[in-house]
# Entry
Amino acid sequence: MNGLTESEIDKLVASQADDDTAWESPTVVKRERAHFIAFPQSSEIVSDKEILSGTPVFRGTRVPVSALLENLEKGVSLDEFIANFPTVKREQAIKILELFKASLSQLKAA
# Structure
């Protein structure tokens, strides 16, 4: 099992999920230690079951925080993002990006 990626391991395990005989020769997988990032309570992120089923959104909006990262990943500038999602304030987006940036130091220290 060494050398498999997380995705390959997940596919292997999923492929055996409906196999009633899989218990006879179980797949043994050693996964890498997971690192969890503890985000401090942010006044800019809200998660409420009544808003998009609990998806984290920018406070006062229905815009998922993930939309910011997805847009940046696609090459959309911060100004374009704000224009496309006018309910999100520029200061909110910047605070979220600073929060993510700070989380990288947690991973480095882990």
Q: What stands out?
A: The mean pLDDT is 80. Residues 70 and 76 are 9 Å apart (CA to CA). The first helix runs from residue 6 to 15.
